[in-house]
Automatic annotation (TrEMBL):
Cited PROSITE patterns: CYTOCHROME_P450
Native organism taxonomy: Eukaryota, Metazoa, Chordata, Craniata, Vertebrata
Family of this protein: Belongs to the cytochrome P450 family.
GO cellular component, one term: endoplasmic reticulum membrane
Protein name: unspecific monooxygenase
Length: 490
């Protein structure tokens, strides 16, 4: 057979197969734009700003619609009512986790973030319990965050009020907190191992938030064979996994079951207790990947939020001044902020809420999957179908938050200046897959930012009105633009 004829026949068969799969697989899935053979709806999605594309599509197809990435159907939930109905009212059915192709190559479906079923429930329960009860009568997590906040202030003092890019320093602080929880010890900010870990984490987040990563997630089979930054991501993930594995081996050699020092010790003790259990949730592999999940999420999400926060405080000096006034009134200058202070600082609390609402850190959340066939709003969603929940559509709802595109702490204050909470506040997602580290992240944001503003005035290099806070990437994570500022001692 002529090679050209064979090629044409092969492509034609693929196209026909694609059309057949689309038509036969839709069943009672929600309506959506007509997918093209092979590539699905990829041409109708701006990979640089997926949330914007979903917003436009929701105006045409409603709050629940179906997209195809390649030949894979994804049900999109847009708006508070649809997201809440799925994640909270039908929490068990929507508690599955769909894989992210670019991470699946290395992360596997174990640990906390990407596991499912019994493994996910057991490892998540154990991790939550360990984080809540951590300290075993010794140092609490709040003590560790306060200590790191003091170290952060000392590092910022070393800048001597000169312009600096805060990216690295703001990454070190939350990373050290999670290191003290997982590995027992914090690192010096100049430790070579620490510097390497920080560089790899920062690089991974930039890659995952890039348009290239979104393309990879649509065509993983093809891009596996092409050069690109995803290969750097794979190497970085391998490095972090191997680093944690070495720490686990060190812990085994010095483990005292009567005196657990950190998360790894607690997990090793649980492994010994469950050694006769046939469930096999408590394994070395699950330990390493659970620690990796805590390490990566506990570092980068808080670090990125802090970078957004300082940029917003630079751009809105009147807000910063009010926060510093409240800090001076409630805490003063001579003691460290503590979590008990937060209840007496409604304006600062509202600013923290508004920062997280405004920056919309995870625009489309991590992908969910339905755990069984689900009847949802008169549609039948087959078991295993991927679910995207648009957190942007909730956090930027213009009925709940007037002028959501404007940074305004008043979104979370009542007419008397008291904190006004909102069910629409979902930066950590909602339901059964809600972020394990939510309480730690909120503690870090409050203690780090109040400690910084207690000791420094923030000075911009340009007129605050000229500062650009538009994210430079809006894929998996919303990343702030690079900027410099001066930390002027109070």
């Amino acid at each position: 057979m002529d090679p050209v004829v064979a090629l044409v026949l092969g492509v034609s068969c693929l196209l026909l197969l694609s059309v057949w799969r689309h038509r036969s697989g839709r069943g009672e899935l929600p309506p959506g734009p007509t997918p093209l053979p092979i590539i699905g709806n990829i041409l109708q999605i701006d990979v640089k700003d997926i949330s914007k594309s979903l917003r436009h599509l929701s105006k045409v197809y409603g709050p629940v619609f179906t997209l195809y990435l390649g030949m894979k159907p994804i049900v999109v939930l847009h708006g508070y009512e649809a997201v809440k109905e799925a994640l909270v009212d039908h929490g068990e059915e929507f508690a599955g986790r769909d894989s992210i192709p670019i991470l699946k190559r290395r992360k596997k479906n174990i640990g906390i973030v990407f596991s499912n079923g019994k493994t996910w429930k057991e490892i998540r329960r154990f991790s939550l319990m360990t984080l809540r009860n951590f300290g075993m009568g010794k140092r609490s997590i709040e003590d560790r965050v306060q200590e790191e906040a003091r170290c952060l202030v000392e590092e910022l003092r070393k800048t001597n009020g000169s312009p600096c890019d805060p990216t690295f320093i703001l990454g070190c602080a939350p990373c050290n907190v999670i290191c003290s929880i997982i590995f027992k010890n914090r690192f010096d900010y100049q430790d070579p191992d620490f510097l390497t870990l920080m560089n790899k984490i920062n690089e991974n987040v930039r890659i995952l938030s890039s348009a290239w990563a979104q393309v990879y997630n649509n065509f993983p089979a093809l891009i596996d064979y092409l050069p690109g930054r995803h290969h750097i991501l794979f190497k970085n993930i391998d490095y972090i996994i191997n680093y944690i594995l070495e720490k686990v081996k060190e812990h085994e050699e010095s483990l005292d079951v009567n005196d657990p020092r950190d998360f790894i010790d607690c997990f090793l003790i649980k492994m010994a207790q469950e050694k006769d259990n046939q469930g096999l949730e408590y394994t070395y592999e699950n330990l390493v990947y659970a620690a990796s999940d805590l390490f990566n999420a506990g570092t980068e999400s808080t670090s990125t939020t802090l970078r957004h926060a300082l940029l917003l405080l630079l751009k809105h000096p009147q807000v910063t001044a009010k926060v510093q006034e409240e800090i001076q009134c409630v805490i003063g200058r001579h003691r460290s902020p503590c979590m008990q202070d937060r209840s007496r600082m409604p304006y600062t609390d509202a600013v923290l809420y508004e920062i997280q609402r405004y920056i919309d850190l995870l625009p489309v959340n991590l992908p969910h999957a339905v755990t069984c066939d689900v009847k949802f709003r008169n549609y039948l969603i087959p078991k295993g179908t991927a679910i995207w929940t648009s957190l942007t559509s909730v956090l930027h709802d213009n009925k709940e938050f007037p002028h959501p595109e404007i940074f305004d702490p008043g979104h979370f204050l009542d007419e008397h200046g008291n904190l006004k909470k909102s069910d629409y506040f979902m930066p950590f997602s909602s339901g059964k897959r809600m972020c394990v580290g939510e309480s730690l992240a909120r503690m870090e944001l409050f203690l780090f930012l109040t400690t910084i503003l207690q000791h420094f005035h923030l000075k911009s290099q340009v007129d605050p009105k000229e500062l650009n806070n538009t994210p430079i990437a809006n894929g998996l994570t919303s990343l702030p633009p690079l900027y410099k500022l001066c930390f002027i001692p109070v």
